[in-house]
Specification:
Function: Specifically methylates the guanine in position 2445 (m2G2445) and the guanine in position 2069 (m7G2069) of 23S rRNA.
Shape: elongated
Number of helices: 19
Catalytic activity: guanosine(2069) in 23S rRNA + S-adenosyl-L-methionine = N(2)-methylguanosine(2069) in 23S rRNA + S-adenosyl-L-homocysteine + H(+); guanosine(2445) in 23S rRNA + S-adenosyl-L-methionine = N(2)-methylguanosine(2445) in 23S rRNA + S-adenosyl-L-homocysteine + H(+)
Subcellular location: Cytoplasm
Structural class: alpha/beta
Distance between the termini: 86 Å
Family: Belongs to the methyltransferase superfamily. RlmKL family.
CATH architecture of the largest domain: 3-Layer(aba) Sandwich
Strand order of the largest sheet: 2-3-1-4-7-6-5
GO molecular function, one term: 23S rRNA (guanine(2445)-N(2))-methyltransferase activity
CATH superfamily of the largest domain: Vaccinia Virus protein VP39
Helix content: 25-40%
CATH class of the largest domain: Alpha Beta
Number of strands: 29
Length: 717
């Protein structure tokens, strides 16, 4: 052993903010003393063995530094002079390559690159003066790496013992996402969530959105008592003149023995899922590189399909952040799905959720026991930790006020009460939560009333010009009073719309920008509705039976949804077990809505594709086959960019032919239209087996208007 093995040094470890406490505990366990920390940096005193052990065993540090000198450095010249006083011959030879890094914090020195250059000059000048030769600089794996930091005009020159960031364990060849977690941060998340080497063998570790598998591998390293630096081929001290190879080799041998002993332990089950097959492949490769393929199981699967895999366990997950504006809404809904599914399936489990948005933690509906602030690079994140409690949620039930309503509009009130009693009884029996209770029954009261869970939408249909406008307004106010009285609701739960004869895409155009979404249930699906920003809410209630039919037909099938609107039919297909879904619409807003609906139900990834395109043109270009196709075109639309006009009566034959060309053998195409005067082209029956199912597709709450839509099932002959 070399003499410097017994010498005490001032050691430092840099880390991601939020991991300081964990590294402080490591430093003490690894032989350090006088441990202290500030944001992103831990300092302690220890000998060279403590320094080596930190490089080999620290799970959370980014780099480990051994202090060589500290001195005042108010300017670049003082920095040069201080560096020149270091006896560099104790640390390197003339043939040792080196590199210099520099960081400045509240320093009078303004340029870190120039500061690093001055330190480099000091090293070179010292050797040139003593040997008439100079060592060479190498930025790629130099013999030693010198780190200079200047804080408030106080300089510290250190030897970077790690050489490269310690998060590079060596097992990960590529990430499964655009920004995979660094291994050191992943280890911190796992530890703070409650996973330790003493965790019971009966406690499962689960990551249902595992990406490249980093959380799972770090959990395995912790439980298996494996040194995270054992697989690294390079450390910064390897070219250091003071390196004690005998000591290092003995520490490596000890680590190997501990890892082998850890592998012989009885392990808890460790399981990861991901919806993306590419991520699954990367995770399996990384796990194999880490030699844990017999300890960790990776499967491809949607979050929606998560079922309780063990009696007890710890679920640690890093859901997508949605840092891109277009993905933020989907990420929020995915967190809501994660919370809901956790409460349904993982009662009593421990849960750790790492996210960049604190609001997302609130959306999950979990009562968190502790929260840790952490950073993923520059992103300010939170780790929410707690115990999952399923709890019992009571379904909302409408209760009709027994008292007679106001005298004004009593005729409407009586009809509304009669309808509501009948429809509510049916809805409770069938489990329907969104339905219509009044549909222009009385000519004088030209409105419709729809119930969405605990919200009400009242739509006024614009009166003809022959009707006095003030009289129409008075009757509409009477309707509102009767509605509020009968259902006993506050004003903020009643939303009003006025419908006029629409042209083109007017019914789809934005009317406001509140962006307030409410969640409702239909069948086994959760769907988002918006009562303020658009004329329609996001769900066509009269298509309920069609969507339920799609859910029954979809299992194991490839589903195509054309003119998809907000993707409600796609969600039913996904929940019904579709192998894959493709959702096509020209509107970016509605496709984003569709992705939110999918995320809210725990679906996403390559199996559920959304395509922004003109459906007619897209059908000409797409060559895929689908087992189940839903086509629900608008009555009329035009595209400004392409200067194309779509008329459902004129163009439906060509549309059906194009769609049928994509239908696989034995498949089913469902065609629907709300154009009341629509007539199906007679030639369609010559080429295809077609069945009019309009009557069965119209639900009871819309039975009064049997022409609200038309629907056909079409198959190949």
């Amino acid at each position: 052993m070399k003499d410097n093995n017994k010498k005490t040094y001032r050691l430092m470890a840099s880390c991601a903010a939020g991991l300081e406490e964990l590294i402080s505990l490591e430093a003490k366990d690894l032989g350090g003393s006088e441990v202290d920390h500030v944001r992103g940096l831990v300092t302690w005193k220890g000998d060279i063995e403590a320094a080596y052990r930190t490089c080999l065993w620290s799970r959370y540090a980014s780099r480990v530094f051994l202090t060589l000198a500290e001195f005042p450095a108010p300017d670049e010249d003082a920095l040069y002079e201080g560096a020149l006083k270091v006896d560099w011959s104790q640390h390197m030879n003339i043939d040792t390559t080196f590199a210099v890094d520099c960081s400045l914090n509240q320093s009078a020195i303004q340029h870190s690159g120039f500061a690093a250059l001055r330190v480099k000059d000091a090293v070179v000048d010292q050797f040139r003066n003593s040997c008439n030769e100079r060592p060479s600089v190498s930025v790629v794996r130099p013999g030693i790496r010198i780190r200079t930091s200047v804080y408030k005009d106080q300089a510290t020159i250190s030897l970077d013992l790690s050489g490269e960031s310690l998060h590079r364990r060596g097992y990960r060849k590529e990430g499964g996402s655009l920004a995979p977690l660094k291994e050191s941060l992943a280890a911190g998340i796992v530890a703070l969530a409650g996973w330790t080497p003493e965790t019971s063998k009966d406690t499962m570790f689960l990551d249902p959105m595992c990406g490249s598998g980093t959380l799972l591998i770090e959990a395995a390293l912790i439980f298996g008592d494996a040194a995270p630096g054992l697989s690294r081929s390079y450390f910064g001290f390897s070219g250091w003149k003071g390196h004690d190879k005998v000591l290092w080799d003995s520490l490596v041998d000890e680590a190997i023995e501990r890892e082998e002993a850890g592998l012989l332990r009885e392990w808890p089950p460790m399981l990861g899922y991901d919806a993306d097959p590419r991520a699954v492949a990367v995770a399996r490769s990384n796990i194999e590189n880490a030699c844990y393929e017999d300890k960790i199981t990776i499967k491809q699967g949607q979050l929606a399909n998560l079922r309780r895999p063990a009696a007890k366990g710890l679920m640690v997950v890093n859901p997508p952040y949605g840092e891109r504006l277009s993905e933020h809404d989907q990420a929020e809904q995915l967190h809501r799905a994660l919370g809901r599914i956790s409460k349904q399936e993982l009662d009593g489990w421990q849960l750790g959720v790492f996210t960049s948005n604190p609001d997302f933690g609130d959306r999950m509906g979990i009562k968190w026991e502790r929260t840790h602030r952490m950073y993923n690079g520059s992103i300010n994140c939170r780790l929410f930790c707690g115990t999952v409690h399923s709890g019992e949620t009571q379904d909302f039930q409408w209760q009709l006020t027994p008292d007679t309503g106001p005298e004004e509009g009593i005729e409407f009130g009586n009809r509304l009460r009669k309808n509501s009693k009948k429809i509510l009884k049916w809805a409770r029996r069938e489990g329907v939560r969104c339905f219509r209770v009044y549909d222009k029954d009385l000519p004088e009261y030209n409105v419709s009333v729809d119930l969405y869970e605990k919200w009400i939408q009242v739509q006024e249909y614009k009166a003809p010009d022959t009707i006095d406008e003030k009289a129409a307004q008075r009757r509409f106010q009477q309707c509102l009073h009767q509605v509020r009285h009968l259902f006993g609701v506050r004003r903020d739960r009643v939303f009003l719309k006025t419908r006029r004869k629409q042209k083109g895409k007017a019914q789809y155009q934005k009317q406001a920008a509140h962006k307030k979404m409410h969640t409702v249930q239909e069948g086994n699906c959760l769907l988002l509705v918006n009562f303020t920003d658009y004329l329609d809410t996001g769900i066509f209630l009269d298509h309920r039976n069609i969507r339920l039919k799609i859910a029954k037909e979809a299992k194991g099938k490839r589903f195509l949804n054309l003119f998809a609107y907000t993707g409600t039919a796609t969600v039913h297909a996904a929940v019904g077990g579709a192998e894959s879904t493709t959702t096509v619409d020209l509107s970016a807003n509605y496709l984003n809505w569709a992705r939110m609906n999918l995320a809210l139900n725990g679906f996403g990834g390559l199996a559920h594709e959304t395509v922004q395109a003109d459906c007619m043109k897209w059908l000409e270009e797409d060559r895929s086959e689908y087992d189940l196709i839903f086509v629900d075109p608008p009555t009329f639309s035009n595209t400004k960019k392409e200067r194309r006009v779509f008329d459902v009566q004129r163009d439906h034959r060509l549309l059906i032919e194009k769609a049928m060309a994509r239908l696989a053998a034995g498949g089913l195409l469902i065609f629907s239209t709300n154009f009341r005067r629509f007539q199906m082209d007679e030639s369609i029956e010559k080429y295809y087996a077609i069945r009019n199912v309009s009557r069965s597709s119209i639900p009871i709450d819309f039975a009064r208007n049997n022409r609200i839509h038309h629907c056909w099932e079409i198959r190949r002959r």
